[in-house]
Specification:
It is a single chain. The mean pLDDT is 91. The chain has one domain: Ubiquitin-like (UB roll). The longest helix has 9 residues, at 30-38. It has helices spanning 10-15, 30-38; strands spanning 2-7, 19-23, 28-29, 48-51, 54-55, 61-62, 67-71. The relative contact order is 0.31. With 77 residues, the protein is an alpha+beta fold.
């Protein structure tokens, strides 16, 4: 299975990459995807997640061909 992982804004800067492609043998949750992509255990509470451009929570299952986007909360004025 192939999963595209994208990072945006300050996550992109702090991780030093705009994303990775994961190759896994079974579906993952959003939290497992984060851990495999970044090497960090546990998805921080303030990180927003979209799968195929739809906001989701960390328990959603990611399957072949999905694109997962992680980004910090957006603020504006």
């Amino acid at each position: 299975m192939s999963i595209k992982v994208r990072y945006f804004a300050s996550l992109k800067e702090s991780l030093g990459s705009d994303g990775v492609e994961l190759f896994v043998t079974e579906p993952l949750t959003v939290e497992q995807t984060w851990s495999q992509a970044t090497g960090q255990v546990g998805l921080p509470d303030n990180i927003l997640v979209a799968v195929n451009m739809v906001y989701v929570d960390q328990t959603v299952e990611i399957t072949d061909g999905d694109e997962v986007a992680f980004f910090p909360p957006v603020t504006g004025g």
